[in-house]
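In the laboratory, one determines a bound structure by crystallizing the protein with its ligand and collecting diffraction data. In a computational setting the workflow is compressed into a single prediction: the sequence and the ligand go in, and a structural description comes out. We illustrate the idea with S-adenosylmethionine.
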Amino acid sequence: MSKTHLGHTARKRFGQNFLFDEYVIDQIVTAIAPKPGQNLVEIGPGLGALTEPVANLVEHLHVVELDRDLAKRLREHPFIQDKLNVIEQDALKFDFASLTQNDKLRVFGNLPYNISTPLMFHLFSFSEHIQDMHFMLQLEVVKRLCAVDGDSLYGKLSVMAQYYCAATPVVMVPPSAFKPAPKVDSAVVQLIPHATPPVELHSVSSLELTVGTAFNQRRKTIRNSLKNLISEASLNTLDIDAERRAQTLSLVEFARIANYVYEANGE
Ligand code: SAM
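The predicted complex, in C-alpha cell form:
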C-alpha cells in the first residue's frame, strides 16, 4: 500500500490516513450539512478531502493543522485559500473558545486516531461554545462514545461523553476508503452538546475522578475500587449497592457518588 497520496508522504506520527473515496466523502459532508454563515472549524484538514467540498458550500472555514507542510499547502491552495483561516497548531492545545464570537462552533474532522481520546476530552471542555461535532474515528472509539451502562465498551469516555453530549453514529467507513488504509474499521459520530446538562454536578472534576477511579479497576466491586473515595455505608445511603461493578452504573448514579465525594472531600 502506497504511503504517498497527492504528492504527500503520509506521516504516521501525525496519524495521517487520507480519505479518497468520493462516495464516503459525500456522505460525511451531507451529514455535516454546512451552510453559509456558520462558524465551521475542521481539525486535521490534511490534503483537503473534506475541506474542499465544505469550502465549496460556505464563505469561510477555520482549519487546525499541525503538519507544517500540509498547513502550507492549504495556505497556498489554488481554489479555496481565500476562504480558509489556517491555524498551524496542535488541536490538543488549541483554545477553541478563541474562535467563537457570536456564533457557536460547528467542529468536524477525520481525526488522527492516535490522539482521539484526549482530543475528545479537550473538546468536551469547550462544549458550551460548540453547536455540534462530526468526527471520523476508529469504530471502537465511536462505540465507546455511544455506549451505555451494561455495554461491554462502556467506560470513562462513555460516561463523560453522555454528560456533555448526545452521541450518534452516522456513517460507517471501511479501511479501503483511506490512503494508506488503517488496520481497523472507522465510523463518523455526531456529537451534540446538551443545552442543559442531564445531571446536576457540584464539580465536573469530581465526576471525572469518580468515574476514572471506578473504571481503573473495572472488574472489582465499587466497594473495593472506590474505597478511597467513599465508604460502603455511604454508598448504601445513596441507594447504590456496593457489590456492583463500574460497568453497571449509570451517569445518574455516578453523578450521585461524585456529588457525595465532592461534599465529603471538596474534590
Ligand atoms: N482530513 C484529511 C482527510 O480526511 O483525508 C486528513 C485526515 S488524517 C486522519 C488526520 C490529520 O490531522 C492529518 O492531516 C494530520 O496532519 C492532522 N493532525 C495530526 N495531529 C494533529 C494535531 N495534534 N492537531 C491538529 N492536526 C493534527
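Residues 14-19, 43-47, 49-50, 64-67, 70, 90-92, 110, 112, 115 surround S-adenosylmethionine (CB under 6 Å). Keep in mind that any predicted model is a hypothesis to be tested, not a measurement.
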